[in-house]
Amino acid sequence: MNKNVTSWSWSLLTLLILFALGTGLWIATKKIDYTWRWNRVPQYFVYLNEDAIVVPADARVEKVDVVGESANVTVLTEYDETLTYKVDADNVSVYQDETLFEGDTIGYIAEWRAGPLLVGLWTTLWLSAAASVFGLIIGLVTGLCRVSSNTTLRQLSVIYVELIRGTPLLVQIFIFYFFLGTVLDISRIVAGISALAIFAGAYVAEIIRAGIQSIPKGQMEAARSLGMNVPQAMIHIILPQAFKRTLPPLAGQFISLIKDSSLVSVIAITDLTKSGREVITSTFATFEIWFIVALLYLLLTLSLSQVIAWVERRLAVSD
Amino acid sequence: MIKTVDLKKIFTGRGTEVRAVDGVTTHIKSGEVVVVIGPSGSGKSTYLRCLNGLETLTDGHIMIDGIDLADKKTDLNKVRREVGMVFQQFNLFPHKTVLDNIILAQQVVRKRNRKEAEDKARQLLKKVGIADKESVYPGHLSGGQQQRVAIARALAMDPKIMLFDEPTSALDPEMVGEVLDVMKQLAREGMTMVVVTHEMGFAREVADRVIFMDHGKLVEEGTPEHFFTEPREERAKDFLRQVL
């Protein structure tokens, strides 16, 4: 009971500190005379797009037929063609027997569209997902080469890992886009995903290697003594156990990958970061947008850690 | 069944050379129970591990059912499925249930279907006396139960030979009996067994032959009566004075 009370009071202190920090920031922004325009933000997530429907030639409106939420407008053109257009019922701009000239608006079709922030979020999401999958495959293969008895495989994997870990990701992305992109004629998206996957693969390889080496030697011996060959023992015995052990560091690596994916904005891939910058150029809501962008990244990484935590719980049944 | 001819296993590392097994020649017949004893570091475990190719030979030959393990063309995996092994540390697969531990190699190596493998596994679990634990993970079993599962797992491959590497050394004393009972039953059924152990009682009671090793060499071999009552070699006498 007593312990409970102290725990609560400490939590209260935490809240107090966070509140104080927030207030401090707020006062600071007050001083620089920044006008917060949070109301401008939502339209960059979703917005209502109104498509104008126009007549292709001079015409006369024959009939306006309202069916539910939409209206069918039938017109007779100067070339004696009968054309029917469908527009929103409450957005009809013409009436019966009205004479229209070429390019006049008949009505509008309104629909909700994803704004740049949502599109950017989606791009970041699938870009990271693709890079993660390829990174995992590359890492798995490299990790296995790293523990192989073949010297060439071992040396190649060491060179790859050291090369990638020793150079900045930003430089790698530039090399992929400007050098490999030109030489092999690959698109910016492919270059971006490859750079991220190969970068992540090097780290995943080290994690996998450590995982494999952490499994007691007796496991491999038991599998071999039952007549399994090395690949069978790896697939059925070693890798499942290694995977379970390496899940937390792998999760960390993939969370890093989501964050590092923001760097592909330098080769003009419209990911979340680049979308954010584009929105800022049209709104000047610099502070708001960067906060939102950070929040969206946080949303992605937190969801991923939740998923991983769930998998970990599932795998813990044999403990 | 098993013939070893001038078997040598030499470990080299950091400039030192350890002659773990140093010229062992012996012949183990089908249905025979051979117990290998000796002080720790005498090379008895290494000798046993050589018999199913877990250690590569430095020199000499091991003939199992007429197949030479030293021959580079020999498919070791084929030999191993005929030679079961039980380890000191059990080495059960911790991510699989007891039943799956026993089924896995049957399916992967022997290509049996699931039903067939399950039937075999249940029958063996009954034999080692833990039929009620089939869906438990090894981590939840006692040492004695784990070792009995390990024996069942090895037996599921229908081996012609069973090797035991100090199967009771990692067990609490009160669990040694249950494992030894299973081994005794196997011996009675006519299984060819090579057992490295410190259980002198087991050696005396079950063994057809005792092999005494020291410093990688086969020092003395004979029936248990002979070995435990009137050993010829001085080193064997010393050892027996220590352990009995």
Give structural notes.
The complex is a heterodimer of chains A (319) and B (244). Chain A has helices spanning 2-31, 116-146, 151-165, 169-183, 188-214, 217-225, 230-260, 272-283, 286-315; strands at residues 46-54, 59-67, 70-77, 82-88, 99-100, 105-114. With 319 residues, chain A is an alpha+beta fold. Chain A folds into two domains: 43-114, Beta Barrel (OB fold (Dihydrolipoamide Acetyltransferase, E2P)); 116-318, MetI-like fold (Orthogonal Bundle), CATH 1.10.3720. In chain A, the strands form two sheets. In chain A, strands 4-3-2-5 form a four-stranded antiparallel sheet, with no helix packed on it. Chain A has a two-stranded antiparallel ribbon with strand order 1-6. The model of chain A has no long low-confidence stretch (mean pLDDT 91). Chain B is of the alpha/beta class. Chain B is built from nine helices and ten strands. Chain A: This is Putative glutamine transport system permease protein GlnP. Chain A: It is a multi-pass membrane protein. Chain A: The chain crosses the membrane at residues 7-28, 125-145, 157-180, 186-205, 289-311. Chain A: Pfam families: BPD_transp_1.
> So, the CATH homologous superfamily of chain B?
P-loop containing nucleotide triphosphate hydrolases
- Please state the CA-atom Rg of chain A, rounded to the nearest Å: 29 Å
Largest sheet of chain B: 6 strands, mixed
Number of domains of chain B: 1
Percent helix of chain B, as a range, is: 25-40%
Average of the residue pLDDT scores of chain B? 92
Q: Globular, elongated, flat, extended or rod-shaped: what is the shape of chain A?
A: extended
What is the strand tally of chain A?
Answer: 6
Q: What is the CATH architecture descriptor of the largest domain in chain A? A: Orthogonal Bundle
Q: DSSP strand (E) fraction of chain A?
A: 5-15%
Strand order of the largest sheet of chain A: 4-3-2-5
Q: How many individual domains of chain A?
A: 2
- Given as residue ranges, the uncertain stretches of chain A (5+ residues, pLDDT < 50) are none
Determine and state the CATH class of chain B. Answer: Alpha Beta
Subunit arrangement of the protein? heterodimer
CATH arch. level architecture of chain B:
3-Layer(aba) Sandwich
CATH superfamily caption of the largest domain in chain A: MetI-like
Q: Assign the structural class of chain A, choosing from mainly alpha, mainly beta, alpha/beta, alpha+beta, or little secondary structure.
A: alpha+beta
Protein name (chain A): Putative glutamine transport system permease protein GlnP
Family (chain A): Belongs to the binding-protein-dependent transport system permease family. HisMQ subfamily.
Function (chain A): Part of the binding-protein-dependent transport system for glutamine; probably responsible for the translocation of the substrate across the membrane.
Main location (chain A): membrane
